[in-house]
Design a protein that fits this description.
single chain, about 130 residues, alpha+beta, Beta Polymerase, domain 2, 5 helices, about 40% helix, Iojap/RsfS/C7orf30
Length: about 130
Amino acid sequence: MTVSERAHELAITAAQAAADKKAQDIVIIDVGDQLAITDAFLLAAAPNERQVLAIVDAIEEALLDLPEKAKPVRREGERGGRWVLLDYVDIVVHVQHTEEREFYALDRLWKDCPTIPFVDRDLARAEAAAGSGE
């Protein structure tokens, strides 16, 4: 794994914020060996523009709440709400409408790169509770 500790922290925090807003198909891709400009891509999808923007807002808020605050150096695509890119230097966040996610298939484009495991904490809790018979 080539991502820095900071990139890992940002990616996991952003992924959880996206999951909290019901993002779909959340994937963190370690692109550090392939790109000099960033360590990781976070990909997330939503079925409509309003939800895409809500996910973006939640990610920005969560990264600003970190002890070492993070603000994007670049933000693109917000007006259309179909594909918003947030560039945090260490990570680049792509929140896409489900149709754009399927059409552009960034997952397949970067398929040779390793992924960074992410499990939604709420899903993990639910599975743990179900496994314990609660």
